[in-house]
Structure formats: C-alpha cells, structure tokens
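FORM 12-B: Structure-to-Sequence Request
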C-alpha cells in the first residue's frame, strides 16, 4: 500500500496522523526527545490565531511546535473509511 506523506505543518485541527520520518537531521534528536518518534500517533489539536505555533497531542501529552519545526515532521494522515 502506498501511503501519502504530508508535513505535520499541513494538517488542520482535528486531523490525526502517524509520525513517519523527518526531513531534517538537524532537528531530528530534539523532536525524538519530545516524543515525535516514527510510528507514534498524533492529533492536531489547534493552531494559534496567526497559525503559529500548533498544538498536538502525542505520546499522552500536549506539545506545542513552531511551524518551522512541524515542517520537518513527515506524517501519514489517517484516512476515514
């Protein structure tokens, strides 16, 4: 099955996805330490009024990410059947 990958920054509030990989090695360790590990499910909770930062629920806690960080997280969105 081919999966369509998106950047986390492209998802809208209410969308669910699974972390797939990272597009930058520079931020890889920081994101891993925050619980953004491949295979982990997440929910985009909200965006700030001007769009940055975004709030996600991942690994059982709330995490705020700048869009510049979310740009480097590649996710596989859940598709409703």
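FORM 12-B RESPONSE
SEQUENCE OUT:
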């Amino acid at each position: 099955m081919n999966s369509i990958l998106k950047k986390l920054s492209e998802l809208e509030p209410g969308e669910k996805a699974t972390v797939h990989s990272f597009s930058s090695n520079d931020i890889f360790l920081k994101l891993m330490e925050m619980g953004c590990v491949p295979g982990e499910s997440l929910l985009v909770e909200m965006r700030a009024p001007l769009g940055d930062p975004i709030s996600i629920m991942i690994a059982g806690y709330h995490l705020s990410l700048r869009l510049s960080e979310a740009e480097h997280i590649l996710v596989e969105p859940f598709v409703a059947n």
